[in-house]
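User: Structure please.
Assistant: Input sequence and predicted structure:
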Amino acid sequence: MDVRRAQLRERGATFYIGLPLTLWFGIYRLYPSKDFMNFLVFNYSLELFLQALPLTLITLSTNAYAVGFEETRGLMLGTLGLLIVNMLEILI
């Protein structure tokens, strides 16, 4: 019984040590939503507020100051469109 308990403790420690890496690499998206709902909501919230919104604001401010770069306007609008799609995907 003690061996089984030690194995479970070791596997649990490995799991919880790996949780920050799942946020960093986005692997949390592969978890089943019915079993890890709180974990998924937390990670999606972090992704929205620490990545998607700041990146959108930076892109908008960069596009606003990009006067004289008409040849790259399509690229800037495409990037902004993909950021908005990413935020919608997070919210859904």
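The longest helix spans residues 37-65.
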